[in-house]
Specification:
The complex is a heterodimer of chains A (about 475) and B (about 160). Chain A has about 475 residues and is mainly alpha-helical. Chain A folds into 2 domains: about 325 residues, Cytochrome Bc1 Complex, Chain C, CATH 1.20.810.10; about 90 residues, Cytochrome Bc1 Complex, Chain D, domain 2. Chain A is built from 20 helices and 2 strands. In chain A, helix 16 packs across helix 20. The N and C termini of chain A lie far apart (about 100 Å). The radius of gyration of chain B is 28 Å and the shape is elongated. The longest helix of chain B is centred in the first third of the chain and has 35 residues. The termini of chain B are far apart. Chain B is about 25% helix and about 30% strand. Chain B has 2 helices and 11 strands. Chain B folds into 2 domains: about 40 residues; about 110 residues, 3-layer Sandwich (Rieske Iron-sulfur Protein). The chains are: A mainly alpha (about 475), B alpha+beta (about 160). The interface between A and B is large, with 66 and 56 residues.
Chain lengths: ~475, ~160
């Protein structure tokens, strides 16, 4: 058996030369001392391959036409053998891929591995990061429920902020002037053909460059990169201390890969895929479009930005960020690699991780969104069942104040908590604020009668940390 | 050493190189242009905006704002539910109507009308509009877009228009 296999390999090598190439690649020397930090690149690749396999299977049952897409997703999730598991794997691996490529990029940045001679490794990696994010977003659209439809509209609206070509870009994503059947098939083409094709091609270049330029050695403080001498030093270093990639380095990748796949299977089996929401319809307004978690930080930032600077943040900011990332090694390809000697690099990573993390947490809470599901306050909280305070509480809810203001733990968080507002504002101050509004509060002068206004104020004045003295409760005039 | 016609005649080789590069470019263009035209075509195609009937005049009460649903400007036969769109229609007087876009002017999220508050609310980033569509609060840079409305006989019609960007 062994002899036959050997003969077959010899024949293959003679006719193709592939066996020798594979052997050379697997046995090429790599720097010793590679730690677990080095597994995230291969793990990202593994996640991509899982996406390809699960995506191909999902594609065999998914129908990229609006109503059928929804029904086929329901079929895949509820009826197809192992459909829920495969959809779950696809969704959780998308999450894993984003996390892994993010960690890989941060590690390469902190280790200074983007410096000479690996500039193009980094640049292809930045393209892979961008295309991975594009895959994540288009994947959310293909989950063509009502959230998918409205997320498409939000994307199109965002692109309209691009100067000059914004509207054309929007029409390109819509594949027309409105959301339509061709909008979904457009995104399907991107998600299934165009972007994966580009990712395959760039991964090929990326891996070729990893082999050609060698895996970067763990950085050491005081050992800067000098393009004039680095290659000679690196080859000498490998000759002296290098270890074969197979099996001395790859074992960590293999073990981490097992952990990754087992983890994904457990998540897919136990938690499953994201729920499919209401059927897709641009006429169904009872929806609250939210991006998947990887873009929720952007969603949060757009809520917190001062009005009018969306263009600078969305287009200029993100454009400059990616251009900056892409050309980074062209600007700084020499010098210290160790993060211990690069405080700015550490600072940038801290700012990005903290900023994105904080915005993600904040975005998941979305305190700026009106809470339409809020229920009228109970009589116990109101403290009255008749009279101006009770009427005011009812108006507080009916006029929409409750959507944005919280009282005793009930209501939205867009505006200040009014649980004890009676302690802080006088009757006149309350009237003034309600009548005139503010930056994030409408003026109610035109929609409330004098009587209604007085009743709401009576209710708000009764919101105190301690019961109000009788003379402080205003009378309704 | 391999000798060829070209090596004996460098100018002929240069010509052949140009022919090959030119042929490659021509093949690429000929193959790429039709698919690109099909793929990018919808960006440039302008379809006529049709009037859609959304109800009879007497279906709407003066001073009331209601959601109306109608077929969008350019439905494709297999669009299904996505071939529909909506507007907020307000009857101002006996014969005057205003139709507002359901898309928030900030990022396009679906605004909802709260009749008792007399406000449009956006669920995404808290944009709020008054009954006349002007900005009441939050990040929207401008008021709600409006559709053209007309009354034909006893029918109220809205001019189905592109998604307001």
């Amino acid at each position: 058996m062994k002899q036959r296999l050997g003969a077959a390999l010899a024949w293959l090598e003679d006719r193709t030369g592939l066996v020798g190439i594979v052997r050379t690649v697997m046995q090429h020397p790599v720097p010793p001392g590679a730690t677990w930090w080095y597994v995230f690149g291969s793990a990202t690749l593994l996640a991509f391959l899982v996406q390809v396999v699960t995506g191909v299977v999902l594609g065999s049952m998914y129908v990229p036409a609006p109503d059928d897409a929804y029904r086929s997703l329901e079929f895949i999730t509820n009826d197809a053998p192992a459909g829920r598991l495969v959809r779950g794997m696809h969704a959780w691996t998308a999450t894993a891929m984003i996390v892994l490529i993010g960690i890989h990029a941060l590690q390469v940045f902190l280790f200074g591995s983007y410096k000479y001679p690996r500039e193009v490794n980094w640049m292809t990696g930045v393209l892979l990061l961008a295309f991975t994010l594009a895959m994540a977003f288009t994947g959310q659209i293909l989950r063509f429920d009502n959230n998918g439809v409205w997320s498409t509209i939000v994307l199109v609206k965002m692109t309209s902020y691009v100067p000059v070509i914004g509207d054309d870009l929007g029409r390109f994503f819509l594949a027309g002037d409105v959301v339509n059947a061709s909008t979904l098939s457009h995104f399907f083409t991107f998600h299934v053909f165009v972007i994966p094709g580009l990712i395959f091609a760039i991964i090929g270049i990326h891996l070729y460059l990893v082999i050609r330029n060698g895996i970067s050695e763990p950085p050491e403080a005081g050992r800067p990169v000098d393009p004039a001498t680095y290659r000679a030093w690196y080859h000498d270093y490998l000759r002296r201390e290098g270890v074969p990639f197979w099996p001395d380095a790859i074992w960590r990748d293999a073990l981490f890969g097992v952990l990754l796949v087992v983890g994904l299977l457990v998540l897919a089996g136990v938690i499953g895929p994201p729920e499919v929401g209401a059927p897709p319809s641009p006429a169904n307004l009872d929806t609250n479009p939210r991006p998947d978690w990887y873009f929720i930080w952007l969603f949060a930032a757009l809520a917190l930005l001062p009005p009018g600077i969306e263009f600078y943040f969305l287009i200029l900011g993100s454009g400059l960020f990616f251009i900056g990332l892409f050309i980074l090694p062209l600007l700084a390809n020499r010098g210290e690699r160790s993060w211990k000697m690069r405080p700015w690099a550490v600072g940038i990573v801290c700012v990005i991780v903290t900023g994105v993390g904080a915005l993600t947490v904040y975005g998941l809470q979305a305190p700026w969104s009106p809470d339409f599901a809020t229920q009228p306050l109970s009589a116990e909280v109101v403290g009255a069942t008749t009279g101006p305070v009770a009427n005011g509480a009812q108006l507080f809810h009916e006029k929409g104040c409750h959507y944005c203001h919280r009282i005793a733990g009930s209501g939205g968080q867009r505006g200040p908590d009014l649980t004890t507002i009676g302690d802080k504002l006088s009757e006149n101050e309350l009237i003034w604020r309600i009548a005139n509004g503010g930056v994030n509060m409408p003026s109610f002068a035109g929609t409330l009668t004098q009587h209604e206004l007085r009743e709401i104020v009576a209710f708000l004045q009764s919101r105190r940390s301690a019961p109000a003295p009788a003379q402080n409760v205003p009378t309704v005039r | 050493m391999i000798t060829t016609e070209g090596s004996r005649n460098p100018s002929r080789r240069r010509l052949l190189e140009r022919v090959v590069v030119g042929a490659g470019g021509l093949i690429s263009a000929l193959v790429a242009i039709p698919p690109l035209a099909m793929f990018l075509g919808p960006m440039f195609r302008r379809v006529p905006e049709p009037w859609r009937t959304v109800g009879r005049v007497n279906d709407f009460r003066i001073g009331e704002t209601v959601q109306v649903t109608f077929e969008n400007a350019s439905p494709i036969p297999w669009s299904g539910q996505t071939g529909l769109t909506a507007a907020w229609l307000r009857r101002e007087s006996e014969g005057r109507f205003i139709a507002f876009s359901v898309n928030c002017a900030h990022l396009g999220c679906p605004v909802r009308w709260e009749g008792r508050a007399q406000l449009f609310f956006c669920p995404c980033h808290g944009g709020t509009y008054y009954a006349d569509g002007s900005v009441a609060a939050g990040p929207p840079p401008r008021g709600l877009s409006q559709y053209a409305v007309r009354v034909q006989g006893d029918q109220v019609q809205i001019l189905a228009s592109p998604l307001p960007l």
